Structure formats: C-alpha cells, structure tokens
Amino acid sequence: MKNKNQPRGLRNNNPLNIRHSASRWQGVRAEQTDKAFVQFTSIMMGYRAAWRILESYFNHFEAQQAPFTTRNIIMRWAPPDENDSEAYLRSVCRLTSLAGNEALKRPSSLSVRSSQSARSSQNTQSSPPPLNDAYTAYDPQAKTKLIDLLAAMTCIENGISMNDVDRRAIERGLERAF
C-alpha cells in the first residue's frame, strides 16, 4: 500500500501528474478517486503514459516543423500560462546534462523492442535498411537523455531528489509504450 506521506504523483502511480482527459490510458485503476490526476495500477504504467505523451509531442512538433527539444517539451508540458515554465526548464537542465535547445530523438525510436521489430520487418525486404533510419538505429545515449528528462520532471512534479526516482520503472514504461 502506498504511504499517505508520499507525494500525490507517486501515490497515484502517476509520477508526472498526468491530468484526466479524453485519453484512454492503459493500466488505469478501475476506481479513480483523484479528481484531477489519473491513477495508474503501477508506476511503470504511469511512465508508459508519459512516453506516449512524449511521442505525441514529437508528432506535433514534427507537423509544426519545430524541433523536439527540451525547451519545447517543457513549454508544452508546463505551459507558461499555468506555470513558471522557464524555472521548470532551468531545473530540468540543472538536474540533467540536457541543454534547453538540445534536439532529442523520437521516443519510439529508443525502445529496443520497437527497433528490433522494425529491423526484422525491414529485413524481409530486398534492400537492407538505411543506417540512419530512426526506427532501426538504436541509440543508448539518446535513450539515456530522455530517461534523464523524465527523471528530472518526476523530481520537479513530486519534490523529490534524482536519487529517489525509479529509473528502471521509466525504462520499463518505455518498453511497454512501443
């Protein structure tokens, strides 16, 4: 059972405090007792939802011909009309090795499972897959950057230290997301 002294996001297994919306998330608790934030069955499923949101941000930015950067992600996640977005961004950059305008990789390209299935489907074709294909070029460093981003956001959302973030749950959420 969750400790009532834990931050709300951790009690809800929703470490990034995803609000209720029309989205139908996998892994939600049958009974939703928090009126503002989604409650998940496990922390991994909360991170899975966060990865899916990041993927939707990537698609949105791509459609707008805008880069998928730390700054753009934070400005959308914690919009300036509701938050001190610049302070949020500074905190993320301080907690990680990320720069505000650093371009990041598409989240779905970072899952080993997603990359392997894309490779195997492409290997059935007559030509070899291109080396720079985002879905086939698994990049552990890019994966670490996005895990760091979600870990820092978890710290900010819950008022905890980076040492208290379950990075393995973030990674398992990625594996379940794509």
Folded structure, characterized:
By secondary structure, the protein is an all-alpha fold. It has one domain (8-177). Helix content is 48%, strand content 0%. The longest helix is centred in the N-terminal third of the chain and has 21 residues, at 43-63. The two termini are 29 Å apart. Residues 117-136 have low confidence and may be disordered.
Topology summary:
Layout: H1 8-11, H2 43-63, H3 70-77, H4 85-95, H5 112-123, H6 140-158, H7 167-177
Helix pairs in contact: 2-7, 3-4, 4-6
Shape: globular
**Mean pLDDT across every amino acid position:** 89
Strand content range: under 5%
Order of helices and strands: HHHHHHH
What's the total count of β strands? 0
Count of discrete alpha- or pi-helical segments spanning 4 or more residues:
7
The helix fraction, in percent, is 40-55%
Task: Tally the structural domains.
Answer: 1
Which secondary-structure class do the elements indicate?
A: mainly alpha
Radius of gyration: 17 Å
Keywords:
7 helices, single chain, 178 residues, mainly alpha, globular
Outline of the structure:
By secondary structure, the protein is mainly α.
